[in-house]
Amino acid sequence: MKTSNIKPAEGKLGVLIVGNGAVATTFITGVLMSRKGLSKPIGSMTQYDKISIGKGEEARELHYGDIVPLASLNDIVFGTWDVYPQNAFESAVNAEVLRAKDIYPVEDELKAIVPMKAAFDKDYACRLDGDNVKDCATRWDMVEQLREDIRCFKAEKGCARIVVLWAASTEVYVPVDMSVHDTLEHLTAAMKADDREHIAPSMCYAYAALMEGAPFVMGAPNTTVDIPAMWELAEKTQMPIAGKDFKTGQTLVKSGFAPILSTRCLGLSGWFSTNILGNRDGLVLDEPANFRTKEVSKLSTLETILKAEDQPDLYSDYYHKVRINYYPPRNDNKESWDNIDIFGWMGYPMQIKINFLCRDSILAAPVCLDLVLLIDLAARAGRCGIQRFLSFFLKSPMHDYTRGEEAVNHLYQQHAMLKDAIVEMGMETN
Predict the structure, then answer these.
(1) pTM (2 decimals)?
(2) How confident is the model at residue 284 (pLDDT cuts 50, 70, 90)?
């Protein structure tokens, strides 16, 4: 079922990652090890999930790559930006996510990935203190320097295409301001005026990527591309965008478990979620202004699954609380607790407890791979703007809130959207 009007996945695919920390290096190392046959990309939908095609005796279960032309892992070339100068090998070792036996076979390849200087503003991540940082006179200068980085990387590595993926820390919360974020004209003017209050560094990365013909994926809960001005830029450049915030541990569980309550017509009184983690992400989120960005993202999940307007007897007055606590001894081994107070027949109360001892970067790495491969596919298929079919991978899926559109957070609905899009692209003809 190879499509004829999607551009083939020919040549090298450059994957430029903002951030060279635990998530990025775990992702990179896993891909390098997998293509040597020394590991397997477990958890990746693009590598393992199957879709039922046809009916009756003609029915077949096909991998995504059997339906649409996905880029090969062998064709991926990695580059990064980071505020710290350590190469990917040093960063992977320092992150202490992977064992030595899973890093050293690709040591030389990892050492060759030296991060470019980051476009960084300490006001947006005050807990970080690296010195591998660009000297930018204005936000517009920041954009121009990033565009040059993308052009140089593409030329030096001989890449046919580029995807830019944000796997860096959560920035402080930037509320949408329609006097700045409403149109591309206003956004550009704010960058040129060096409006540092409304223009986060991540917006400069996204702007630069789109202007250079590269799809952009926001893996943190930053506002970044979740504004009308960026949607306009994506349409103008005919590039796809996706975001926001990788859905890995607790929110994955929440988006999958909440549908059990709604399907079974059980009521909810309260849902308390808390996490402990000790990696760089935890350090940054220990700052209240940065946690606020994450909190908004994580709180949004239940609102579109357990809706009071649909079932007022069941969901009209539940309490939802989210907490993240920095706890250095755990490093990347995050632990989440969910206490769910529900009620059933005649209003009698019950409780559900979920304790998920997960590995943050191990869960995020396959999500990174899938988002990169699928947004590259979308670009070659001529799809631009918000890619709603990628909501499955994201905590706070992008949607056009200016028109009253509601995000889809229901895991099984998201999975159906993902499969439908793959099939649709696979069946397109000239």
Answers:
(1) 0.94
(2) confident
